[in-house]
Amino acid sequence: MSRRSSDSVSTVRAADGQSTPRSLDKPDQIIEALQQLSVQMDQVSRNISGMLKQVVDKCEASKASRNNRLASSISPRIQNDDRKRSNRERMLKDPLLPFLPLVNSTTGGEIPSFPSDLKALNELNASDILPILDALGVETTAADGTSLRERLRQAIM
Q1: Where in the sequence does UniProt note compositional bias of the Polar residues kind (predicted)?
Q2: Phi and psi at residue 9, in whole multiples of 5°?
């Protein structure tokens, strides 16, 4: 029986998409073709792994960015509510503990001359208390020094 020439020729497709006819009459040539295919498959695998790593890195960066945006978007009022609750709990445990400072309800920045503890709060005069209450967004009209101090105490704890 004669062998047709098409039976002994195989086509090998290179990574660039080009087809190359190869004679597969000899076992060495078959092994060589398989080795070349293996090398090409290894390269494809490395390429896919690299692309997957890029996708994972982008997802992680996006997640970190989203978490940062969420953390920075917490309003100062919510932050102050949390600190006010913590201050109240701390004062019940030990009145000598320092306050957790509240932040400006509009800007989120530190409030200058914020009292550090109960003793400092009790030593503040009306002219010291007014800017703190204003920064916290607390009403200050028609109030004397004692009621201003009480409003500040309520705002802090």
Answers
A1: 64-78
A2: -120, 130
Give the phi and the psi of residue 138 in degrees, each rounded to 5: -95, 135
Q: What is the mean pLDDT of the chain?
A: 83
Q: Looking at residue 110, what DSSP letter applies?
A: B
The pTM score is: 0.52
Residue with tokens 């945006």, as numbered in its chain: 69
Cβ neighbours around 132 below 10 Å, total: 24
Please state the φ and ψ torsions of residue 155, each to the nearest 5 degrees: -70, -30
Structure tokens at 128: 């010291």
> What confidence tens digit (pLDDT) does each residue in 35-60 have?
999 999 999 999 999 999 999 888 88
Q: Which helix (H) or strand (E) holds 76?
A: helix 76-93
